[in-house]
C-alpha cells in the first residue's frame, strides 16, 4: 500500500508538500478547511531559490510562463525622490530571474500537479490522525502546531497592518516596481505583465485596529504617482495585521512536521514567505525516508537555522521601513542614498544561495 501522509492545509506550502511527497512514492491526503482551493486578491514574488525548488518538481517552467520578470525598482520618498536603487542584474546573472505573479496563478499550477482526489476541501483537522507522516501547512494559527507543541511561542504582532490588492495599470503602464517609504507608512507595487499591477501598503497601528474604507486614499493622497491612482482604481482590497513566528524549539516532533507559516511565519519585507514554504516542502520530501522521525530530525536541522535567519532579517527590514519618528526618518532618508548596493546584495546572496538537498 505504501506510506501515507496527511498534509493539513491546501495553500502554497501544503500543495507543494503534497506534490513533493507524491513524487517520492507517498500516498497523500490534503485537508483543506475552505470549501474550495482559492487564492484571490494579491500577487506574490517568487525569488530564484523558490523557482529552483519548483524545478525539482518539474513545475518551474509552468510558473515562469505565468509570471513576469521582476524589474529592478527603487525605494523612494513620498515626493518621488529616489533614496536607494538596487539593480538586480548581478542577482539575475548568478541566481536566475525573480518573478512576480498572481497568487491564484501559482495555485493553479500547483493544484494541477496534485494527484486526483488527494485534496479534501471542507475538511477540518482537530485531532491527530493515524498516518505515517502528518505535515502542518495550516498557517500562522496552525492547529497541528497547537496539538503537537502546546507550549509553542505565540505569533508576535509586527506593529503594523497591511493592505493588498491587484488593479489595472495606470495609463502608459509601469516600467518598474518599487517601494515608497513615509513615516510609519509604506507603499509598494509591481507590474504583473497582464495589464494589472499588484500593490500593497502598510501602516503602523495597534493590533486589531479598525480602518475606514477611505483610509488608504487619505494616507496616500499626496504621494507621488502612480500611487494615488492605484489606490483609487482598486477593487477588492484585503487587509491583515502582520505577524511573525520565531523561536520554535523544533519544526518536527516524532512523525509530525511543520512547514511554512506554521513553523516560521515572517513579515513580507523580503518577499520570502512563500519561497521558504516551498523550500521546506521540497527539503522535507527529499530527506524523509523509511525512518520518518530520523528524516524529520534532518529536515529540522536543515531548515530551522535558515528560516529563523529569514524571519529576523525580514523583521529588521520592516523596522527600518516603518520608522515613524520624524528625526529618525530624516536620518534614514539621508543615509539611504549613501548605502552601497553591495550592502543589500550581501543579504540577497545569502537568501538566494540555496540548493535542494539530495534525497
From TrEMBL:
InterPro entries: FAD-bd, FAD-dep_Monooxygenase_BioMet, FAD/NAD-bd_sf. Keywords: Monooxygenase, Oxidoreductase. Pfam families: FAD_binding_3. It comes from the Bacteria. GO terms for molecular function: FAD binding; monooxygenase activity. Residues 5-70, 250-314 form the FAD-binding domain. PANTHER family: MONOOXYGENASE (PTHR13789), PUTATIVE (AFU_ORTHOLOGUE AFUA_6G14510)-RELATED (PTHR13789:SF309). This is Monooxygenase. It comes from Virgisporangium aliadipatigenens.
Amino acid at each position: 500500500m505504501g506510506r501515507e501522509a496527511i498534509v493539513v492545509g491546501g495553500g502554497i506550502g501544503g500543495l507543494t508538500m503534497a506534490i513533493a511527497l507524491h513524487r517520492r512514492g507517498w500516498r497523500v491526503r490534503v485537508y483543506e478547511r475552505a470549501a474550495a482551493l482559492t487564492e484571490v486578491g494579491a500577487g506574490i514574488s517568487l525569488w530564484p531559490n523558490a523557482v529552483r525548488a519548483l524545478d525539482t518538481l518539474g513545475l518551474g517552467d509552468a510558473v515562469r510562463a505565468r509570471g513576469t520578470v521582476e524589474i529592478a525598482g527603487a525605494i523612494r520618498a513620498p515626493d518621488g525622490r529616489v533614496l536607494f536603487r538596487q539593480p538586480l542584474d548581478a542577482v539575475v546573472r548568478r541566481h536566475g530571474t525573480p518573478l512576480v505573479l498572481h497568487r491564484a496563478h501559482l495555485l493553479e499550477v500547483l493544484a494541477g500537479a496534485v494527484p486526483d482526489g488527494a485534496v479534501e476541501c471542507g475538511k477540518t483537522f482537530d485531532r491527530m490522525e493515524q498516518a505515517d507522516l502528518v505535515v502542518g501547512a495550516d498557517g500562522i494559527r496552525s492547529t497541528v502546531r497547537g496539538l503537537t507543541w502546546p507550549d509553542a511561542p505565540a505569533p508576535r504582532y509586527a506593529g503594523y497592518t497591511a493592505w493588498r490588492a491587484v488593479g489595472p495599470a495606470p495609463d502608459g503602464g509601469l516600467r518598474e516596481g518599487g517601494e515608497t517609504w513615509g513615516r510609519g507608512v509604506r507603499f509598494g507595487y509591481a507590474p504583473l505583465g497582464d495589464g494589472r499591477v499588484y500593490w500593497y501598503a502598510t501602516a503602523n497601528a495597534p493590533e486589531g485596529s479598525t480602518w475606514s474604507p477611505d483610509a488608504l486614499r487619505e494616507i496616500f493622497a499626496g504621494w507621488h504617482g502612480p500611487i494615488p491612482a492605484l489606490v483609487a482604481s482598486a477593487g477588492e482590497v484585503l487587509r491583515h495585521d502582520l505577524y511573525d513566528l520565531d523561536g520554535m524549539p523544533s519544526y518536527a516532533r516524532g512523525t509530525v512536521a511543520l512547514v511554512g507559516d506554521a513553523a516560521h511565519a515572517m513579515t513580507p519585507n523580503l518577499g520570502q514567505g512563500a519561497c521558504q514554504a516551498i523550500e521546506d516542502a521540497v527539503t522535507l520530501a527529499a530527506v524523509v525516508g523509511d525512518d520518518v522521525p530520523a528524516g524529520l530530525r534532518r529536515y529540522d536541522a536543515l531548515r530551522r537555522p535558515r528560516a529563523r535567519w529569514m524571519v529576523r532579517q525580514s523583521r529588521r527590514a520592516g523596522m527600518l521601513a516603518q520608522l515613524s519618528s520624524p528625526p529618525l526618518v530624516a536620518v534614514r532618508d539621508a543615509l539611504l542614498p549613501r548605502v552601497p548596493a553591495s550592502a543589500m546584495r550581501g543579504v540577497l546572496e545569502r537568501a538566494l544561495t540555496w540548493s535542494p538537498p539530495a534525497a
